[in-house]
Amino acid sequence: MELVTVFRSLEPEQAELVRSRLEAEGFNATIANENSNLTLSYGKGGGSLVQVPEDEAEEAKAVVESKE
C-alpha cells in the first residue's frame, strides 16, 4: 500500500498534531522524516511528512485543509 503525504512541516510538533487529528478522525496516519527537520530545508523535501494510505489521501487532505 502506497503512502501519500497530506501535510508537511518543519516543526515536528505541528506534524504530530496533524497526525493525531487525522487518527482521531479514523485515518491511518503516520509521520515520515521526523528527524530531517534539522538537516533539510522545506523546499528540498525536508520536514516531517504526515502520510496516509493512498485510498484515504483525498479525504485526509480535506480534513487537514479544514483545520488550517
Structural commentary:
The chain has about 70 residues and is an alpha+beta fold. The chain has one domain: 2-Layer Sandwich (Alpha-Beta Plaits), CATH 3.30.70. The protein has two helices and three strands, in the order E-H-E-E-H. Strands 1-3-2 form a three-stranded antiparallel β-sheet, covered by helices on one side. The longest helix has 13 residues, at about 10-25. The model has no long low-confidence stretch (mean pLDDT about 85).
**Low-confidence segments, ≥5 residues, pLDDT <50?**
none
Mind telling me the C-alpha Rg?
11 Å
Q: What do we call the CATH topology?
A: Alpha-Beta Plaits
Distance between the termini: 27 Å
Query: How many structural domains?
Result: 1
CATH class division: Alpha Beta
User: Strand order within the widest sheet?
Assistant: 1-3-2
DSSP strand count: 3
Mean pLDDT: 86
Contiguous helical run count: 2
Give the strand content: 15-25%
What is the N-to-C order of secondary-structure elements (H for helix, E for strand)? Answer: EHEEH
Secondary structure class reads alpha+beta
- Overall spatial form: globular
Give helix % range.
25-40%
The biggest sheet amounts to: 3 strands, antiparallel
What attributes characterize this protein structure?
Alpha-Beta Plaits; alpha+beta; 68 residues
Write the layout of secondary structure elements.
Blueprint: E1 3-9, H1 12-24, E2 30-32, E3 48-53, H2 57-67
Antiparallel strand pairs: 1-3, 2-3
What does this entry show, briefly?
This protein is of the alpha+beta class.
